[in-house]
Amino acid sequence: MKHTAGTLNRTCLAILGILILATGVLGLLQAAGILQAIAQTPEPEAKVVSGELHPFFAQTWVVALMLVIGVVFGVLALAWMIAQVPRRNLSEKYRLHLDTTQGRTTCEPSVLASAIVEQINGLPGVVTSSALLRGTADQPDLDLKVTVNDGADIRELLRKLEGSIPADVSTALESPIQRCRLELDVSAHTQQSGAVVHSTGTVLH
């Protein structure tokens, strides 16, 4: 399951929303004449800033400060853009041991994926399937893609795919599935057997 920058986007949108709301409130106060009453309005011909601004901004430290601020905002904008790219969150070897002094127990996600695919392919009406495990052994994610024929009992098949299959994976890892994504396709082909599972969980015929 691909992970997106949902939390980051919500935070940035909340900040932008607060700024826009504040701008709107100031606009309403300005239109109602309240802002003029609160603030002392200068004379029409009076200068807002006295003196020349060019000598101030021409100073070396001011130029350097503006450059640093520009670079920081540029880096933040670039990081935000990069964060929008969905991450596949591919899993490495699952570590099933709690205490390293008692030994190490690891399991390849592809091994579990092949067992899941074999179990799914044995269900009535399934033409082919693929499984992909992501995350860690403590917080596993499961992606399933199942192709069935037009005579399959979809309701019964969904009951098993959403119930017994994730439950078996949770039992094997001794951790509940955090997220389970299921993609179901219908094909005119008949059920096949002898599927071979690639290391990524994709079934090759």
What does this structure look like?
The chain is of the alpha+beta class and 205 residues long. It has 2 domains: 6-83, no CATH class; 94-204, Cation efflux protein, cytoplasmic domain (Alpha-Beta Plaits, 2-Layer Sandwich). The protein has 7 helices and 7 strands. The chain has a 3-stranded mixed beta sheet. It has a two-stranded antiparallel ribbon with strand order 1-2. The chain crosses the membrane at residues 61-83.
In short:
The chain crosses the membrane at residues 61-83. The protein is α+β, with helices and mostly antiparallel strands.
The average pLDDT value, as a whole number, equals: 75
> Which secondary-structure class do the elements indicate?
alpha+beta
CATH class descriptor name of the largest domain: Alpha Beta
Helical run tally: 7
Strand content: 15-25%
Distance between the termini: 24 Å
Low-confidence stretches: 193-205
Task: Kindly report the name of the CATH homologous superfamily of the largest domain.
Answer: Cation efflux protein, cytoplasmic domain
* Rg from alpha-carbon coordinates: 30 Å
- How many beta-strand runs? 7
| Biggest β-sheet description | 3 strands, mixed
Strand order of the largest sheet: 3-4-5
Look up the CATH topology of the largest domain: Alpha-Beta Plaits
CATH architecture of the largest domain: 2-Layer Sandwich
Number of domains: 2
The string of secondary-structure elements, in order, is HHHHEEHEEHHEEE
Shape: elongated
Percent range for helical residues? Answer: 40-55%
Organism: Paeniglutamicibacter antarcticus
Protein name: Alkaline shock response membrane anchor protein AmaP
Transmembrane segments: 61-83
Keywords: Membrane, Transmembrane, Transmembrane helix
